[in-house]
Design a protein that fits this description.
By secondary structure, this protein is of the alpha+beta class. The chain is 24% helix and 43% strand. It has one domain: Immunoglobulin-like, CATH 2.60.40. The strands form two sheets. It has a six-stranded antiparallel β-sheet with strand order 6-5-4-3-8-9, with helices on one face. The radius of gyration is 21 Å and the shape is globular. The chain starts with a helix and ends with a strand.
Length: 189
């Protein structure tokens, strides 16, 4: 009788601990709307990230915590016999901060090298999760063949001072990371 009671008790405790963590995660972030335009020696890439903001993250941003998204973009030349050749690799950052005095959001878009200011959180979220018109491999002639474009997005890890991460372990629940999104592109001369 004691063993059955202890198994039920442990099951209830485990459920009470694991279920809230599962619910807090929400939907998985993913890359969507990938659009590639080919020009002479360039690829122009546009895409967005879906499900990358949680309510806790939004509250933290409104409280003034700077938040950075990292976008990784890689281009490989596909080769049938040996491993693929890396042609280009980029890391793009989008950073958002809330200005409490002016009551607006400041967003730094690295690929455009400019800062924008918006008053609405929804507009700020759209700007943070979109990369539009990013030019790759400028000034290089690409050989004829198949190329593979790989894209990934992640939240820059929040670093807490003085070992606070042990106490404030829930901050890791903000983290998101997408899977790699692959697209094959054919280049014809």
């Amino acid at each position: 009788m004691v063993s059955r009671l202890s198994v039920v008790g442990i099951s209830i405790i485990l459920f009470a601990v694991v279920f809230p963590l599962y619910v807090a995660q929400g939907e998985e972030a993913l890359i969507e709307g990938l659009h590639i335009e080919q020009g002479k020696g360039t690829f122009v890439v546009s895409f967005s990230v879906k499900n990358c903001f949680s309510t806790k993250m939004e509250e933290a941003i409104k409280a003034g915590v700077p938040t950075t998204f990292n976008f990784f973009i890689r281009l490989y030349k596909r080769r049938p016999v040996i491993w693929d050749k890396k042609i280009a690799s980029y890391k793009i950052r989008h950073r958002i901060t809330f200005d409490n005095l002016k009551e607006d959001f400041r967003i730094w878009l690295q690929e455009k090298e400019k800062e924008i200011r918006v008053a609405d959180l929804e507009e700020a979220k759209r700007s943070m999760q979109q990369v539009e018109g990013f030019s790759m491999v400028r000034g290089r002639e690409l050989e004829r063949g198949d190329y593979e474009l790989a894209i990934k997005a992640e939240l820059d890890p929040v670093k807490l001072p003085l070992r606070l991460e042990c106490i404030l372990f829930f901050v890791s629940l903000w983290d998101f990371e997408t899977d790699w999104c692959y697209r094959t592109v054919r280049v014809e001369p």
